[in-house]
Amino acid sequence: TPTNIQCLSLVESWHPWSGVTQKHELQYLNGTEWKTIFKGQTDGTGLTKLFTPVMAQKFRVILENIKYEPSVNELILFSAE
What we know:
The chain is mainly β. It has no helices and 6 strands. It has strands spanning 3-11, 23-30, 33-41, 46-56, 59-64, 74-79. Strands 4-1-6 form a 3-stranded antiparallel sheet, with no helix packed on it. It has a 3-stranded antiparallel sheet with strand order 3-2-5, with no helix packed on it. A hairpin with a 2-residue loop joins strand 2 and strand 3. The chain is elongated. The mean pLDDT is 93.
């Protein structure tokens, strides 16, 4: 069922002083095309990002890590209030 999503919380396993960063991109499926909601880079600890609400049924997060395999301890999508 399509849901109105407004926030992403991403928890990573590294410390800020470890120098590990990950590029991330949150996307949603619009028909047959993936559209980007936002993208950026973390400091290895994660992020919480509020964005303009998006109504969709399918979302995906793309991660890129140069030093290690991409890793996430926890990923939560929050519905719009």
